[in-house]
Amino acid sequence: DRYTPGTGTAAFIESNYDTVAVQNTGSYGQRTFVFSYALAGLVDGDSPSTRSDLLAAILDFFLEEPPPPPNNAPLALDDMETTREDSAVTILVLANDYDPDGDPLVLTGVTQGVHGTVEIDDSDTTVTYTPEADFFGPDSFTYEVSDGNSGSDIAQVYVTVKPVNDSPLALDDMETTREDSAVTILVLANDYDPDGDPLVLTGVTQGDSGKVEIDVNDTTVTYTPNPNFNGSDTFAYIVSDGNGGLDTGTVEIIVRPVNDAPG
């Protein structure tokens, strides 16, 4: 590389000296400078070649520029995030991270959560956490950040998955009774709630050929067929988990005939 002097001239008089400014190119290492000069003020008896050799010896040097400062690694700070059960969340993990040198940061790796998957998004600056189906509670994972200059750091992300209510599942039932005989039906016996909430009956429809009532315990129903009816009848019931979750089941009743005495 060739360095060019800055503006101005330097005058060297007898044993005095002066300075010449040169431009800084931003690189480092040894550089050679070439100076142009003219001798003036020679007196009788001076030899131009002698003065030239002397001046050239003074100006023949090189400059050792200092290397750039070493790269400072980025600092990745831990993060906390929340999401809801069965809902993925995008996390801006780099939002609170920084690089002392001002280098742009990117994500270079993540670990997986115990109860969810973690993916680096296309931007290389955010991640998406997806909890396992029906999981709620705490989970965590780590990520690695790089400054592009061999500097990296690792931080932890703590995710809290908040529960959401899962509706109960009411499964259809079948029951039999005899003509003119009421029957109590445990309609909730085969129903369940994913969250383990206790279930209660909140409503029933009536059969075409019989009457349906919810018992006082709100967990069973009593079906009473119409007098002398026999055959098949149906009705529906609604079950609740007490947290806004509802489902509807259907009950089929077979009413068996009995022999009626002659009247």
From TrEMBL:
Span of the signal peptide: none
A Pfam family reported for this protein in Swiss-Prot or TrEMBL: Big_9
Coiled-coil zones: none
Protein name per its UniProtKB record: Tandem-95 repeat protein
Source organism (scientific name): marine sediment metagenome
Taxonomic placement: unclassified sequences, metagenomes, ecological metagenomes
